[in-house]
Protein 1
Amino acid sequence: MNDIRALVFDVFGTLVDWRGSVAREAREVLAPHGVAVDWHAFADGWRAQYQPAMEDVRSGRLPFSKLDVLHRRNLEVVLKEFAIRSLDEATRVHLNLAWHRLDAWPDVAPGLKRLRERYRIAPCSNGNVSLMVDLARRNGLVWDAILGAEFARDYKPKAVVYQSAASAFDCEPAQVLMVAAHSNDLAAAAAAGLRTAHVARPDEKGPGRGEHRPSVAVDVAARDLLDLADRLGASVD
């Protein structure tokens, strides 16, 4: 791994707890309006619209749209599914920004700090730039750049998203390590020429419902970002 110059990261699930955070945000926004639903099911339902919405862009059925725009389309779908009606526009806008208020897993801020001592680091996420900035500011994450879908004008797992991240750092793809908790993301990154590291997030989709280990070949498999830093020889404070 001595030729690795930069690390790029998946964000939703890998760095932040989207399920628990969206459930909390939905409850805080909707409960005062008299809504009472299974909040984790609401988060799951919203997330279930994620890939289909991006596929509309990847396939060319829709022009490129920021994830915030897609999330709003998806929110309208999930509100109908849960029979939640009569929300004013301001409440819908605020609820849609729940994805800007996600909490990082506990190992993320200290792990990224250690990794940044040795490597250039950036998100390579389907999230738009303002979303990544808000998550970074909320959770004390320090990036060298913000890369990913909005930079590439397309969505993972398109090769251009990974390759444009490498190019932004003036690196060959093989000099960049893609870090994710999702084997399909890592398989696509590897096909685009990047090296890959899997981080286990076994509770991402609910207790025991995330990936405990990769299901594809990877260069490194780690328990969390602190373990990844250890394996890559990144310094300890």
Protein 2
Amino acid sequence: MKPGPSQLKERKVWDVPVRLFHWALVLLFAFMFFSGKSGSQWIEWHMRSGYAILTLVLFRILWGIAGSTHARFTSFLAGPAACMQCLKHLLARQPSPYPGHNPLGGWMVLALLLALLFQASTGLFANDDLLSEGPLAVLVSKATSDQLSRLHSWNFNLLLLLAGLHVAAVLYHAGFMKENLIGAMFTGVKRLPADAAGGAGARFASPWLALVLLVLAALAVYLIVKRPF
């Protein structure tokens, strides 16, 4: 039996750092696609967007360990049984009982983060066989740089596939389950069944902690790119 509108309660789920991370990443990913396909005149901006994405991914990993309740990996990464139960809910078009990411969505988040981390990391060693190369390309042989360049290109296709699946899932929730996940990522508020486990009492970490972790992530990327030592 599906809960009626009166049985759904609005609850604050997503904190500001998660929401800002999400939309900043969307914009940077779109720009990375544009700049990567627009020729050598955009290569410098393509590399800068890669540094920014690497910073965001490192921040999100840290925030997944020390951040708010529903931002933490432990809150949404689950085993096969939970994933199958989640799939049954989705196929039955039942409102999600999961306050944050559901188990399937949680694994998608992890897959996207790892693919983005791999994309940004290989880009540091890549070259375009013309005038540009990543800041760490000098540390490896030309053959290794060429191989990492190919992996960088192939992995981008994987990222497009994962992004497409992510968008399809959001549209499925909107069209068939009447869940506005896009709106929730703007407002931080989701409509959940009144008895949803963990929906109430979520702990929200300090935005100042998020700022510190972001600065640490940015500093790490700066030190990797500039190699001052």
Protein 3
Amino acid sequence: MAGDASFDVVSDFDEQELRNALDQVRREVGTRFDFKGVTVELEQSKTELTLLTDDEHRAAAIKDLIESKAIKRNLSLKIFDWGEVVPAGGNKVRQEITLRRGLPEDLARKLVKQIRDEFPKVQPRIQGDAIRVAGKSKDELQKVIVRLRELDEAVPLQFENYR
């Protein structure tokens, strides 16, 4: 290994927290007066959510509910990639919501280049859909983390395995 200390930059979310937030949304939809007699189906798979409801206004209301519950459960709104609301059969609309997980390759390359340019004493390497940053000084690694937190990227960044 190149140095004594390292950490990983990843982009991930807690699936259980997302499941809990969606359960809260379902419960709230069942009790709210403005959703009485309205079809609301919210299905979760590994990589996406599917929302089926009566009209675009209901879809927008459900989106607001999902976002508010996600924030309360410390989930970043950057994990959601909201697709278009498209007509489905039977006077219903469907919306596909893709869940972002992992660092895209182009973003990983951009971050590695930026880390190399600004912090010559650390060695960033792309490992799958994560970036491992290693260096001799823990202070330098802390500075890298602070700098990466300042960036406003399209995906949420987490820092793991700091040793």
